[in-house]
Amino acid sequence: MDNKHGDIFRIWNYDGHMAYEDIIKATNDFDVCYCIGTGGYGSVYRARLPSGKVVALKKLHRLEGENPNFDKSFRNEADMLSKIRHRNIVKLFGFCLHKRCMFLIYEYMDRGSLFCILRDETEAVELDWIKRVNLIKGIASALSYLHYDCDPPIIHRDVSSNNILLNSQILELDSSNQTVIAGTFGYMAPELAYTMVVTEKSDVYSFGVVVLETLFGKHPQDFLSCISSQPNEPIMLKDLLDARLPPPTNPLVVRNVVLATALALDCINANPKCRPTMQQVVNRFEVGRRESTRPLHTIAVNQLVSPPLLSLPDQTYTVV
Predict the structure, then answer these.
(1) Long-range contacts of 2-9 (CB under 8 A, 24+ apart)
(2) How far is 151 from 6, CA to CA, in rounded Å?
C-alpha cells in the first residue's frame, strides 16, 4: 500500500510485485491503443507488466470520485469484492486511488468480451448454440451468487456484453460510489430514467438484454422497440436468431434456446416487480430440462411471455 501524497495503491491475490509506475508505463499512461473496451463506469485497458503478467485495468470515470465520501466507500467495496470467489466471476487483484486516475486491476481474460466476439464473424460462428446457452447459464449463476450468496447481497449495476468476458470466468465486477446511477446505454432498466432506486431487478433487466444479444448475435434494440410498440406482433423466433449459425435442430438445444428466450422476455418486463429474480432464472433452467418444446419454426416470440412470477422478499443490497 502506497500512501504518498494521499494516494492509495493496494494489491491482493497477486503473485509478484506490482507498482503504480509499472501500470502507467505498461499502458503508456492509458493510451487509447491499449483500450479494449468501454462501459458505463470507465474504460478497460490491457497491460503487460515487467514480469510478463498480463492484467486488465478498468480506469474509472472521474465523476465517480467527486463525492467526498467516495474514497472510503470505494476501499470498503473493493475489499469486499476481492473476497468474492465464484468460477464465473473475474478475479479482482487490487485497486488504485490516485489524484490523476482511479483504476481496478483484474485477471485478464484472453478471449475478450462477448461484445467483441459477437461482432467478429469467425469468433461468432465458433460460439455455437450449446456454448451460447452455457454462457447464458453461467451469467445467470454469477448474478444469482451476487444477489443471494454474498453478505451483504451485491448489485452489479453494469451488466452488458462489454462486461461479459470469455474464458474460464464470465462476469466482470465494478466497485464505485453507491449513490451514482451508472450503466451502459441500451442495457439499463427503463425505471432508472426516472428513479434513483437501484435494485437487483435492474441487473435482471440487463441480463435479459444480454441474453437476447447472445441469441440474436447483435444488440436487440430494434426488437425491443418493436415489442414495445406492437406487443402482439407475431414475430417468429427463428427469424431473430443469429443467422451466422445454422438453426438449432437438436431437441435439447432447441429447448434451451427457447427457454433462454422466454426467460429473457420475462427479465425485460417494463415493471420491475414482474421480473423474475436471478435465483428463479437459475431454477427455471434446471426445471426446463424436463420440458418439451414445439419445433422451432412454429414458435412466435409473443407466445413465450409467461405470467408474472412472484418475487422473493426484498433484501438489503450493496450496490457496486
Answers:
(1) 5/99, 6/99, 7/96, 7/97, 7/98, 7/99, 8/71, 8/75, 8/95, 8/96, 8/97, 8/98, 9/94, 9/95, 9/96, 9/97, 9/98
(2) 30
Q: Which of 107, 126, 143 is the last residue of a domain?
A: 107
Q: Which SS3 state, helix, strand or coil, does residue 86 take?
A: coil
CATH number at residue 73: 3.30.200.20
Domain count for the chain: 2
Same domain, 102 and 123: no
* Catalytically active residues, by annotation: 158
What does the alpha-carbon distance between residue 222 and residue 19 come to, in Å, rounded to a whole number? 46
pLDDT in tens, 283-296: 999 987 666 678 89
pLDDT digits (tens, 9 = 90+) for 19-55: 677 888 899 988 999 988 776 667 889 999 888 888 8
pTM of the model: 0.81
Domain that holds residue 224: 114-319
146 and 291 both lie in a single domain: yes
Q: Is 266 exposed, middle or buried (0-12, 13-18, 19+ CB in 10 A)?
A: buried
Q: How confident is the model at residue 276 (pLDDT cuts 50, 70, 90)?
A: very high
Do 151 and 226 lie in one domain? The reply is yes
Examine the domain organization and report whether 167 and 140 are in the same domain.
Answer: yes
Phi, psi (rounded to 5 degrees) for 22: -65, -40
Please identify which residue in the block is written with the cell numbers 416487480: 273
Check if the beta carbon of residue 252 is closer than 8 Å to that of residue 277: no
Eight-class DSSP state of 248: P
Q: Are 105 and 45 in contact (CB under 8 A)?
A: no
- Residue 12 grid coordinates: 491482493
Convert the pLDDT of each residue in 205-221 to its tens digit.
999 999 999 999 999 99
CB distance 145 to 89 below 8 Å: yes
User: What CATH number is attached to the domain comprising 195?
Assistant: 1.10.510.10
Residue 146 φ/ψ, nearest 5 degrees = -65, -40
Q: Is the pLDDT of residue 96 over 50?
A: yes
User: What is the reported pLDDT for 194?
Assistant: 80
